């Protein structure tokens, strides 16, 4: 299985984990309306999908930017590429969320955002919401605020000699975390950027360096590393206190590192099986799946309630399947064309 396919499969699983986390409260509502009981599944720490995304992002940025190291104008070109990839879809869903929120606020259970929060959302700048949380208008965008920090640091690092790029990025991330941990809480945005989760970007970059230096996991060893990662995830869901800022990086981040090692450092040149190709296709649309699934989950909840279908498991199946289908369509008919258009407009 080629590394790119296995990484895309991992991205698909990460997005699906986040969707499972978000579908369960709505499943409880569906069950309650029918007088049924529903017990949420905590088999895995579902939001660990974010940790996986961050480690994968660190790997991909290094792997996909090999043509930029030591090149004139590399920083500008890198940022243009990342903006073209991230901004169109995120701005679109943020705008849609605002429109729906202003029209039917009860459907989204969201308070009316301030102008500062709206502006901060579009600029990927950490802002306190009217509900007291440091999050953008579309709350899932909190992860993109971290991603944008990483992209800016990566772009700045590309202005340095090649051998200093990754160490410098890692050092800045470590200093941010150290400042918040030792002297915090710091004021925004430093207090937000200084959370330990940003170290997962550095871990992903480290795996990319190991891959470039020839690290390959074969056969039973690769399977063992993947199993160890999955076991660590299961343990993280059941160990008290494993969801703290540092403990979650150790448990969930550690699991993400092992899974990324298994996915990214496999043997090359093997033709992937059809199921793997199918999952990789979902991985291609994982960004769309991450952003669109709350709309589908809430919309499907209203549909099943109006139809009188109160089975929580049926609702979960419909909501998750609908989220995947919506993501594939959104990726094909909006995300890809919008990214191409943005790249042409930015000259990247």
What's the gyration radius in Å?
A: 20 Å
Percent in helix? over 70%
- Encode the helix/strand succession as letters: HHHHHHHHHHHHHH
- N-end to C-end Cα span: 31 Å
Mean pLDDT: 93
SS summary, helix count = 14
Secondary-structure-based class equals: mainly alpha
The total number of structural domains is 1
Q: Which secondary structure elements does this structure contain, and how are they paired or packed?
A:
Elements (H helix, E strand, L loop, with lengths): L2 H31 L14 H17 L9 H30 L1 H4 L6 H9 L18 H16 L4 H22 L6 H4 L5 H14 L6 H20 L6 H20 L9 H11 L1 H22 L4 H35 L2
Helix pairs in contact: 1-2, 1-11, 1-12, 1-13, 1-14, 2-6, 2-9, 2-11, 3-6, 3-14, 6-7, 7-9, 9-11, 10-11, 13-14
Task: Describe the overall structure.
There is one protein chain. The protein has one domain. The chain is 73% helix and 0% strand. The chain has 14 helices and no strands. It has helices at residues 3-33, 48-64, 74-103, 105-108, 115-123, 142-157, 162-183, 190-193, 199-212, 219-238, 245-264, 274-284, 286-307, 312-346.
